[in-house]
Amino acid sequence: MEQAIRFYKTGAPEVLTLENANVGEPGPGEVRLRHVAVGLNFADTYFRNGTYPIPLPAGMGVEAAGVVEAVGEGVTNVTVGDKVTYTGFINTLGAYSTARIIAAAPLIKLPEGIACETAAAMTMRGLTSAYLMRRIYDFKAGDTLLLHAAAGGVGLIVSQWARLLGIRVIGTVSTEEKAAIARAHGCDETINYSHEDVAKRARELTGGVGVNVVFDSVGRSTFNASLDSLKRRGLMVCVGTASGTIPPFDPQLLAMKGSLYLTRPALADYIADPAEKAALAGEIFGHVAAGRIKIEINQRYALRDAVQAHHDLEARKTTGSSIFVI
Asked: Where is the Enoyl reductase (ER) domain (predicted)?
């Protein structure tokens, strides 16, 4: 019997339950996919706690990799035996499972040299890093980036990618252990926000000028410091809200702090076009396959340990990527 994590009400990690599941056969446009590994992302906690409202009961997780076991009528992009990966939003919810029926459209065939565990650890983080590095801002060698959560999954990929492009990265971390990890993966300097003033230190490291861009995945607790770290006409990219959503503010604040730019992108809008999705996937998978960017899987869990995995994630105990091994 197959198994899946489901939840019937929003709340703490304990609302997640492991249940037996009857998968069945794929319908038109669908495949039956046997998972090898499932990605654990901070966005999963938003579905669980109600930040992202969805009809309940529901499955959990939006990213996984595995092997196609059966295809429904009209499926042409994959065949039985293909190794594939996927990520998305509500259209892929239900990844915390041993096997599932899923629409064929979101599936990405894995290139040679990319294992299913690696894919499950990097598809969402990799595509997010790809649009941040290749679509949000026209980076040039010598630019400076302030990167929050530098030792996290996206942080480690972005740091390595930035190094390839000659971008100076200042990463924020909460511990000296995470600082060492961030520096080993491309951060030029780190700021420990547990005892350092982020904006003050960022200014010091840039000779008072400020940084070109901030990638802020933390949100509420770092928003003001991020704005204060930017140079005149710099770009603030709100890419996540791990500490809570950002309170409403007067846009005049952006003018007062140097005619700043601000954007709040979502991955879904950068992979909605199949051609753009393929291009971004090709870039990140190409870097990983060639060894230019390494994916660090630092936490592995069994599906039955989903509650503990969510506790670890929210307590910021994790570094790099986390996966469920099926």
From this structure: 11-324
Cis peptide before 111 (omega within 30 of 0): no
- CA–CA distance, 283 with 262 (Å, rounded to integer): 26
Q: Return the CATH number at 247.
A: 3.40.50.720
Is the model's pTM score more than 0.90? yes
Residue after which a domain boundary falls, among 264, 285, 307: 264
Domain of residue 31 covers: 2-125+268-325
Domain presence at residue 131: no
Query: What's the chain look like in SS3?
Result: CEEEEEECCCCCHHHCEEEEECCCCCCCCEEEEEEEEEEECHHHHHHHHCCCCCCCCEECCCEEEEEEEEECCCCCCCCCCCEEEEECCHHHCCCCECEEEEECCCCEECCCCCCHHHHHHHHHHHHHHHHHHHCCCCCCCCCEEEECCCCEHHHHHHHHHHHHHCCEEEEEECCHHHHHHHHHCCCCEEEECCCCCHHHHHHHHCCCCCEEEEEECCCCCCHHHHHHHEEEEEEEEECCCCCCCCCCCCCHHHHHCCCCEEECCCHHHCCCCHHHHHHHHHHHHHHHHCCCCCCCEEEEECHHHHHHHHHHHHCCCCCEEEEEEC
Provide the terminal-to-terminal Cα distance of the chain, rounded to the nearest Å: 13
Model pLDDT for residues 59-84, shown as the tens digit of each residue: 999 999 999 999 999 999 999 999 99
